[in-house]
Design goal:
Blueprint lengths: L2 H17 L10 E11 L7 E6 L2 E20 L4 E20 L4 E23 L4 E13 L4 E5 L2 E7 L3 E14 L5 E11 L4 E9 L5 E9 L3 E9 L13
Antiparallel strand pairs: 1-3, 1-13, 2-3, 3-4, 4-5, 5-6, 6-9, 7-8, 8-11, 9-10, 10-13, 11-12
Length: 246
């Protein structure tokens, strides 16, 4: 399925859930949860960046990573819940340098760390006695604390953050099981696409035969990714209105 098709499915799911009868959001409930999300590289996000100059070539490719953090869900109405939180994401890149003239070829890895503060609107659909499907769409503030670098024997890579903060769009689709008193177990998938490139990568070859004369190559990393989500929300009872004692 093309990337545009995936986003259309998420948009349609949110709209359908928001207009379907029998929706069951947990109105009046604020739930706190923990989540872990393995990161996968999809071809739709252009995970491979190829660089080239005369007699020199390089590649930078997203290989995966891991995201984890906390989540807060607030039931606004019987139809809509609001979800936010904060999490850390570690993107793992592999990179390589090839010099056709000298026969040099080497590869390495680099990790790029960021933080995310998403805000999404969710709609819930009851699919069983205790099972629910939900679809969510919203935005994320993506924060990058620093640049990173990694060295090779005859070269290095340096990742410059484009900005210390930028925004992205987030879409999510998942299923959950609500236990009577033991909380909520959730399994789903998330698509995250930053608005603009996440970082600029400089991949540089040192010519050791010429007093380490540098030959840099530059390319952009968009930072988009797909995750499989595993979450656990702690049990919270719905708030009850205070009794009138008069």
């Amino acid at each position: 399925m093309a990337l545009d098709g995936i986003w259309r499915v998420l948009l349609w799911s949110v709209g359908w859930a928001g207009t379907t009868l029998g929706l069951v959001a947990q109105q009046g409930v604020t739930s706190f949860g923990l989540q872990v999300k393995p990161v996968f590289a999809l071809p739709y996000f252009d995970p491979l960046t190829e660089l080239k100059r005369t007699d020199l070539s390089g590649t930078i490719e997203l290989n995966g990573g891991i995201a984890f953090g906390m989540s807060v869900r607030v039931g606004l109405t019987r139809i809509i819940s609001l979800e936010t939180g904060i999490g850390q994401i570690q993107r793992r890149y592999s990179f390589g340098l090839v010099n056709d003239t000298s026969g040099y070829s080497e590869s390495g890895t680099v990790r790029y760390v960021g933080y995310e503060v998403p805000i999404t609107a969710l709609a819930h659909i009851r699919t069983g006695e205790r099972t629910y499907m939900n679809a969510a769409l919203g935005f994320s503030a993506d924060l990058y604390p620093s640049d990173v670098q990694s060295e090779l024997e005859e070269g290095f890579i340096y990742l410059y953050r484009n900005n210390w903060a930028q925004f992205g769009v987030v879409g999510n689709l998942g299923w959950e099981y609500r236990t009577p008193k033991s909380g909520i177990l959730y399994l789903g998938v998330t698509l995250h696409r930053p608005f603009g490139d996440m970082a600029i990568a400089d991949l540089t070859y040192w010519d050791v035969r010429r007093n380490y004369l540098p030959y840099p190559m530059r390319g952009a990393l968009n930072g988009g990714y797909f995750t499989a989500d595993l979450r656990y929300y702690f049990h919270e009872d719905p708030s009850r209105p205070a009794r009138d004692k008069r």
